[in-house]
Amino acid sequence: MTGVIHNLARSVRAFTSNVFLVTGETTALVDAGSNFDVVSRIDEHVDDLDRIYLTHTHPDHVENLPAIRSAFDVETWGFDPTNEHVDTVVDDGDRVPLGDDDYEALHTPGHKPDHLCFYSPASGVCFAGDLVFENGGFGRTDLEGGDRETIIESIDALYEAVEANLTALHVGHGPSIVEDPLADVELARQAARMG
């Protein structure tokens, strides 16, 4: 049982990251998005939030945080304790509750130094942020803190962590991958090594 996962940014036309609301024993958001009224979308599904988890702190993933914090008085969990948006630190290898499962935090820099993926071995669900995308896409490395060799290492580490049981890959931009998601991670491994 993984709880129910809603992408609150699915129909948004403005530039934003995906925002995943995961309901269950621990009702939480993965990323906050930007440029749309996410609070009203949360209200359509739940009355309260337990936590917000950040895959990383690029503006398109965090600009809605002040409105969410104000509406729900909720803490934000992320990798970088020096970032203004992070209340509670999540380190590589930590287990965090999300929905009805425990997720392992995987530190996966390369797109941004504070990047995390969250993976539940029990359900096979992974929130991959901007590390990998559909059809072998992977996060940009030309932004501040980005590095191609580092992102290759991170994609490899993600592949090794999930290869035994990946059932769904929820990414920071674009559609979630629910049919053979490991193939998309493998494509990203190959694509990141080209050029």
SSE string, helix = H, strand = E? EEEHEHHEEEEEEHEH
- Determine the fraction of residues in helical runs and give it as a percent range: 10-25%
Strand-residue proportion: 15-25%
Number of helices: 5
GO molecular function: hydrolase activity; metal ion binding
Organism: Halobellus clavatus
Keywords: Hydrolase, Metal-binding, Zinc
Cofactor: Zn(2+)
Key features of this structure:
Glyoxylase, beta-lactamase superfamily II; hydrolase; Metallo-beta-lactamase, Chain A; alpha/beta; zinc; Metallo-B-lactamas; 5-stranded mixed sheet
What does this structure look like?
- The chain has 195 residues and is an alpha/beta fold.
- The chain has a single domain (5-192), classed as Ribonuclease Z/Hydroxyacylglutathione hydrolase-like (Metallo-beta-lactamase, Chain A).
- Helix content is 23%, strand content 22%.
- The protein has five helices and eleven strands; from the N terminus they run βββαβααββββββαβα.
- The chain has helices at 38-43, 59-62, 65-72, 148-162, 181-192; strands at residues 5-7, 20-22, 28-30, 51-53, 76-78, 88-89, 95-98, 101-107, 116-120, 125-129, 168-171.
- The protein has a six-stranded mixed β-sheet, with no helix packed on it.
- A hairpin with a 5-residue loop joins strand 2 and strand 3.
- The longest helix is centred in the C-terminal third of the chain and has 15 residues, at 148-162.
- The chain is globular.
- The termini are far apart.
- The mean pLDDT is 95.
- This is Glyoxylase, beta-lactamase superfamily II.
- Pfam families: Lactamase_B.
- InterPro entries: MBL_Glyoxalase_II, Metallo-B-lactamas, RibonucZ/Hydroxyglut_hydro.
- One of its GO terms (molecular function) is metal ion binding.
- Its cofactor is Zn(2+).
